[in-house]
């Protein structure tokens, strides 16, 4: 039939047009900013720093290894390492970043910093409402601006955060098991009965006599 394809196309257009008013899946318009569409878990914008515990300064996972700074293609990360180790949120001494800045006006959201970080200390945020009239100071994010608790990371990237937490828990359990085994072995050695000195001297004397003969 002549024009059948045109009619089918018009029918599909009409179906989508009507569906956009009645079907929840097709309601693509929201009343922004009063309404906000939920972000996809795989969405990413600019990096942030993850910390554990209540104190963000002690809890930052970053140990200032500077790998992300070296690998960043646009060189928008700037790090200065502390001269001495400081206690983290569990009291373990480690190096920390004295300065950690990210210039988001230069950052291209490539996520390479996340991929090369061996400590899962830097992750990608989903925040996009970052417009400002000051393109220099307000877009240069410092350490305190970048710090986010692990709970925030779990909220925006739940699947990825669960994998990281599970890996950390497994590593912690392995370390604790090794420490416990070492302590038990040391205690067993300490509690083992010691051979009397007289018996040792007798054994040495007997060995010397045999070797003389």
Structure commentary:
The chain has a domain at 47-166: Alpha-Beta Plaits (2-Layer Sandwich), CATH 3.30.70.3270. The chain is α+β, with helices and mostly antiparallel strands. It has eight helices and eight strands, in the order αβααββββαββαβααα. Helix 6 (150-156) crosses helix 7 (158-191). The chain is elongated. The longest helix is centred in the C-terminal third of the chain and has 34 residues, at 158-191. It has helices spanning 4-22, 56-59, 67-71, 112-116, 143-146, 150-156, 158-191, 197-212, and strands spanning 47-51, 77-81, 86-87, 93-94, 97-103, 122-124, 140-141, 147-149. The mean pLDDT is 87.
List the helices and strands and how they pair.
Layout: H1 4-22, E1 47-51, H2 56-59, H3 67-71, E2 77-81, E3 86-87, E4 93-94, E5 97-103, H4 112-116, E6 122-124, E7 140-141, H5 143-146, E8 147-149, H6 150-156, H7 158-191, H8 197-212
Parallel strand pairs: 1-8
Antiparallel strand pairs: 1-6, 2-5, 3-4, 5-7
The average pLDDT score comes to 87
- The SSE order reads HEHHEEEEHEEHEHHH
Secondary structure: helix percent: 40-55%
Query: Biggest sheet, strands in spatial order?
Result: 6-1-8
CATH-defined topology of the domain at 47-166:
Alpha-Beta Plaits
Unreliable parts: none
Helical stretch count?
8
**Strand proportion:** 5-15%
The CATH architecture of the domain at 47-166 can be named as: 2-Layer Sandwich
Q: Report how far apart the termini are.
A: 121 Å
Largest beta-sheet details = 3 strands, mixed
Radius of gyration: 31 Å
Question: How many DSSP E strands?
Answer: 8
